[in-house]
Design a protein that fits this description.
With about 850 residues, this protein is mainly beta. It is built from 6 helices and 45 strands. The two termini are about 20 Å apart.
Length: about 850
C-alpha cells in the first residue's frame, strides 16, 4: 500500500473531462422572465474551418454538445419570436466541458445581438481535475528536449521520476517515468487524438513534435467512467489540424562547438576540444485540401503536416587501462606496482601441494615463453589500443579513449480532417519516427567495449469518426494501431570469430557473429555483448454512444486493446572473464602483487565463460472494458457525475505457450522419494496459459459533484476507483534460454581445466522448451513471476474550490488523496 497526498494546492489551471480528446458544451436557453425555451436551435461553428454542428433545446430548455473537437467556436442561438444571439471566441479545450447559459431577448429573429460577455473559465459541470497545456505554452515556455510530456511540470500533483537528461523524442522510457496524483510511476495512460499509444510497459511509444501538437491535457482525479487502464492520470494529446487559411511554422536551433568547454580528461592529455554541434530543425504547414479545377476543400477537407529532426554530435572520452607493447606479448619484466616492485607471473601448470603447502613456479624474469602463449589469447590482446602516455605502474589508466557520438532522429506527422456528411465527421493521423543512438567506441576498432547502435522506429496511426444521427445523439468510433521496434546492433556485427582462432565447430554454433565479450579484472573490457530485438505493438478499438435526455447527459462505451511485445536476445559470440587466479602465487590468496588477468588471457585460461542460445517470444495481454456514465444537471448550480466502469485484462500470455506461469509447491517432482515442487509451464499438464491471476472483479465506480456557489466560485469533489496496468517483469526463461558454461577448473583454481583453444568441447546446449516439465530447474535458484500477483487498485479522492479572478485568472485551492492497494513492485517476481 502506498499513500500519496497533496493538499492546499494553489494553481492557475483549466479543468476537463473524459478519456477522449474531445470536449463538450452544455447549458440552457431561457426568455427574459426565466422560462425555458424549447426547440431553440443552437449552432457552434469552428472559426478556423467554418465546419458547424447544430442541436435543439429540449422541453426543459437544456442543450448538450458531446464529442466536440478542441477549437475556438462561434456560438449561435435562434428561436422564433426572439432576437438571434451570437457569441464569438468560445474556446473548447481538450477534454473541457463548458457550461454556457443563454437568455434571449424578445424580438425579430432577423435581429442579431452580439454577446460580449466573458466566457466562463471554471469547470462548473464536472468534478474532474487536470490542466491543459495549450499551443502557446508549448511554444513559448523553455523545453530543452522539445518534449510535450515534460510540460507536465506545470500541473499540480505531478512528480517526474525519470532522469531529466533523457527528454528527447527517442527517450520514451525516461519521459514516461511520471507519477500523477500519487499513482504508481509509469502507471499512466497516453492518448493521441483519442487513441491509446501506451505499450505493454506503460510507456508512450511516441513523443510527438511540438510542431504537431495543439494541446496536451494532463488529467488527474478524473471521475468520468470513460477513463480506464490507468493508476494515476492521463496524458491526452490533440494534434493540430488544417484550417481554411494556410498556416505553418519553421524552427531552427543551433549549438556549436564554440559554445562548449573541453572535458577535464582532454585537457589533461592535451587533446583538442572535439567538434560536437547540436542542430535541431523542423516546420509545419496546413490548410484546406485544394486541387485546382478538381477539388476545393474549404469548409470541408483539411490537411496538416509537420516534421522535426535533429543531428547531435557529442564527445566521449575516458581514461582506460591498456597493456604496454611488452605486456601484450607476455613480457612483464618491466611491469611494476605502485611501490616499484616487479610483478611476478606464476605458471598454473606447475601447481603442487607438498606437506600441505601449495606452491607454483614463477615464469623466469616474469616473461611467459612464446611456446606457452595461446594464439587466441595473443590475438585478443593485440586488439588493445596503444597507451597514449607512459604508464606509471602496472594497470595505470594510461590510455585516453576518445570518440564522437553521432545521434540523429527524424519525425514526420500528417493529419487529414474531412466532413463526409453534415452528420459524419472524421479525421486520420499518422506519425512516423526513427532514431539512431550510439554508445561509443573508445578503442576505435572492432574490439571496443560494447560499441552498439540502438535503432528505434515508430509508426502510429489513429482515426476518429463522430456521427450525429439526430440532435440529441452522438456516436463515436476510434481505431488505432502502433508499432515500436527496437534493434540493438554492434559495430562488430559480421566479424569473423574464426579469425581469432576459435574452432570452426564452435563458430558455426554461435548465436551471432561479432567480437566476443572479454571481461578483465585490471584492464579494460572489450568486445560485444548480447544484441537484442524487440517490437512493441498494439491494436485499439474504442466506441461510445452519448444521448442527451432531459437534464441527463448519458454515455456508454466499449474499449478493446491488445498489447504485444515480440523480442529476442541474440546472445554474445561467447563471453569470457579473466582474472589473476591462475597466474598468481596462490589461488586462495589474492592481492599479493602477483599474477595478472592479462597473463591469464595470454595463456588462454578464462576464469569463467559462457554462450547463451535464446528463443524468440511473442507475449501479449488483452484488455476489454465497458462503461456507463451520466452527467446529471440537477439545476443551474448543481451537477452530478455518476458512472460505473468494468475492466478485464488477461494475464501475460505467449503465442506459443513459451512461458512459465508459476510454481506448484505440492507437485511431486521427478526426484521421487517424496520430494515436491516444480515449475508450471503454460498449457502443460493442466497448467493455465497465462500469469498472474488478474482480478475478474475490476469494477470502477465514479462519483463527482460540482456546485456553482456563485458566478465566480465553484466547489467540486469526487471519488473514483482505478485499476493500474501491470508491467510484467521477473520473466523466467528457464528452458527457453540455454546457457552453456565454460568449466574453468575442477580443483578450486589450482589448475585450469580447459583453454580458449576449445572452450566448449561438447558443443553448445540448445533450448529444450518445456520438455522437462516439473523437473526443470531442480537444484537451481529459481526466479519466476508471482502467479498470485493479482491487480493493483487505486482509490482517488479530490476536493477543490475554484475562484475566478480578474485578468482571466482562475485560482484553485484543493486536496488530493490517493490510496493504492496490492501495489506490484518491479515485475512482481518471486525468487
Amino acid at each position: 500500500m502506498r499513500i500519496r497526498i497533496a493538499s492546499l494546492l494553489l494553481c492557475f489551471a483549466s479543468f476537463g473531462l473524459a478519456q477522449s480528446y474531445q470536449g463538450g458544451l452544455r447549458g440552457s436557453v431561457k426568455d427574459p422572465g426565466g422560462a425555458s425555451i424549447a426547440t431553440a436551435k443552437i449552432t457552434i461553428v469552428d472559426e478556423a474551418t467554418n465546419v458547424s454542428r447544430s442541436t435543439l433545446t429540449n422541453d426543459l430548455g437544456e442543450y448538450v454538445f458531446q464529442s466536440v473537437n478542441p477549437a475556438t467556436y462561434r456560438f449561435v442561438v435562434e428561436s422564433p419570436g426572439f432576437s438571434r444571439s451570437e457569441q464569438k471566441g468560445v474556446v473548447i479545450a481538450t477534454q473541457a466541458f463548458l457550461t454556457l447559459d443563454v437568455k434571449l431577448n424578445v424580438g425579430d429573429i432577423a435581429q442579431s445581438i452580439n454577446v460580449v460577455e466573458e466566457i466562463p473559465l471554471m469547470e462548473t459541470a464536472n468534478a474532474s481535475a487536470g490542466q491543459v497545456i495549450d499551443s502557446q505554452k508549448l511554444t513559448d515556455l523553455p523545453n530543452l528536449g522539445r518534449n510535450p510530456f515534460m510540460m507536465a511540470k506545470l500541473a499540480p500533483n505531478v512528480v517526474q521520476a525519470g532522469d531529466p537528461r533523457f527528454n528527447r523524442m527517442q527517450d520514451q522510457s525516461g519521459s514516461s517515468a511520471i507519477s500523477i496524483a500519487g499513482g504508481p510511476v509509469r502507471g499512466n495512460n497516453y492518448l493521441l487524438d483519442g487513441v491509446p499509444i501506451t505499450d505493454s510497459t506503460n510507456r508512450a511509444v511516441i513523443i510527438p513534435t511540438l510542431e504537431a501538437v495543439m494541446e496536451v491535457k494532463i488529467q488527474a482525479s478524473t471521475f468520468d467512467a470513460e477513463v480506464g487502464r490507468t493508476g494515476g492520470g492521463m496524458f491526452n494529446t490533440f494534434l493540430k489540424s488544417g484550417s481554411n487559411q494556410f498556416h505553418g511554422s519553421m524552427l531552427g536551433y543551433l549549438r556549436e562547438k564554440e559554445f562548449l568547454a573541453n572535458s577535464y580528461f582532454n585537457n589533461r592529455n592535451g587533446v583538442a576540444r572535439p567538434d560536437q554541434p547540436f542542430r535541431n530543425f523542423g516546420g509545419s504547414l496546413g490548410g484546406p485540401v485544394w486541387i485546382p479545377k478538381v477539388y476545393n476543400g474549404r469548409n470541408k477537407t483539411f490537411w496538416f503536416a509537420s516534421t522535426e529532426s535533429y543531428r547531435q554530435k557529442s564527445g566521449l572520452s575516458r581514461e582506460l587501462s591498456t597493456p604496454t607493447d611488452l605486456e601484450r606479448i607476455g613480457n612483464f619484466s618491466k611491469s611494476v606496482d605502485k611501490t616499484g616492485k616487479v610483478y611476478a607471473i606464476y605458471d598454473p601448470l606447475t601447481s603442487k601441494t607438498e606437506a600441505g603447502v601449495f606452491s607454483r613456479d614463477a615464469f623466469p624474469g616474469s616473461i611467459i615463453p612464446a611456446s606457452r602463449l595461446n594464439p587466441i589469447g595473443l590475438k585478443l590482446a593485440s586488439y588493445y589500443p596503444k597507451q597514449t602516455r607512459a604508464a606509471a605502474y602496472f594497470g595505470d589508466t594510461a590510455y585516453l579513449g576518445n570518440d564522437t557520438l553521432t545521434d540523429r532522429a527524424d519525425q514526420y506527422t500528417g493529419k487529414l480532417d474531412h466532413e463526409v456528411f453534415s452528420w459524419w465527421k472524421a479525421n486520420l493521423s499518422y506519425l512516423h519516427y526513427k532514431s539512431r543512438e550510439p554508445s561509443g567506441n573508445l578503442f576505435n576498432n572492432v574490439a571496443g567495449s560494447s560499441p552498439s547502435l540502438l535503432f528505434r522506429k515508430v509508426d502510429a496511426t489513429q482515426t476518429n469518426h463522430t456521427f450525429t444521427p439526430n440532435a440529441t445523439t452522438v456516436v463515436s468510433f476510434r481505431y488505432g494501431f502502433n508499432r515500436f521496434p527496437n534493434l540493438t546492433v554492434y559495430e562488430s556485427e559480421g566479424f569473423d570469430v574464426g579469425s581469432l582462432g576459435f574452432p570452426s565447430s564452435l563458430v558455426q554454433q554461435l548465436p551471432s557473429q561479432r567480437f566476443p565479450s572479454v571481461s578483465m579484472q585490471t584492464f579494460a573490457t572489450m568486445g560485444s555483448g548480447s544484441g537484442s530485438w524487440s517490437a512493441y505493438h498494439s491494436k485499439n478499438i474504442l466506441g461510445s454512444v452519448a444521448k442527451f435526455m432531459g437534464r441527463h447527459s448519458l454515455k456508454a462505451g466499449y474499449d478493446y486493446r491488445v498489447l504485444n511485445v515480440d523480442f529476442i536476445s541474440f546472445g554474445a559470440a561467447g563471453s569470457y572473464s579473466f582474472n589473476d587466479t591462475f597466474t598468481r602465487k596462490d589461488p586462495n590468496k589474492g592481492n599479493d602483487g602477483t599474477g595478472s588477468d592479462l597473463a591469464s588471457l595470454l595463456l588462454g585460461y578464462p576464469a569463467s565463460g559462457s554462450v547463451t542460445l535464446n528463443t524468440k517470444y511473442y507475449q501479449y495481454v488483452r484488455y476489454q472494458s465497458v462503461y456507463f456514465h451520466d452527467d446529471f444537471r440537477v439545476n443551474s448550480k448543481l451537477t452530478l457525475n455518476l458512472g460505473l466502469r468494468y475492466e478485464y485484462e488477461t494475464g501475460l500470455r505467449e503465442r506459443n505457450n513459451n512461458l512459465i506461469v508459476g510454481f506448484d509447491p505440492n507437485a511431486a517432482n521427478p526426484l521421487g522419494q517424496g520430494s515436491k515442487g516444480g515449475l508450471l509451464y503454460a498449457g502443460l499438464n493442466g497448467a493455465p496459459t497465462e500469469c498472474c491471476n488478474p482480478s475478474k472483479k475490476k469494477f470502477a465506480p465514479r462519483i463527482g459533484v460540482a456546485y456553482q456557489w456563485n458566478p465566480k466560485t465553484t466547489i467540486r469533489g469526487g471519488y473514483g476507483i482505478f485499476w493500474a496496468p501491470v508491467s510484467y517483469g521477473g520473466f523466467s526463461s528457464l528452458g527457453y534460454s540455454q546457457q552453456t558454461d565454460y568449466i574453468a577448473t575442477l580443483d578450486g583454481g589450482q589448475t585450469p581445466n580447459g583453454t580458449l583453444s576449445n572452450p566448449f568441447p561438447t558443443g553448445l546446449s540448445k533450448p529444450i522448451g518445456n520438455s522437462l516439465g516439473l523437473g526443470a530447474g531442480i537444484g537451481q535458484t529459481l526466479s519466476y513471476m508471482n502467479p498470485n500477483a493479482g491487480s493493483t487498485s487505486v482509490h482517488q479522492i479530490a476536493v477543490d474550490i475554484q475562484r475566478q479572478l480578474p485578468a482571466g485568472v482562475v485560482m484553485s485551492v484543493g486536496y488530493v488523496g490517493s490510496r493504492t492497494n496490492n501495489l506490484i513492485l518491479g515485475g512482481g517476481s518471486v525468487n
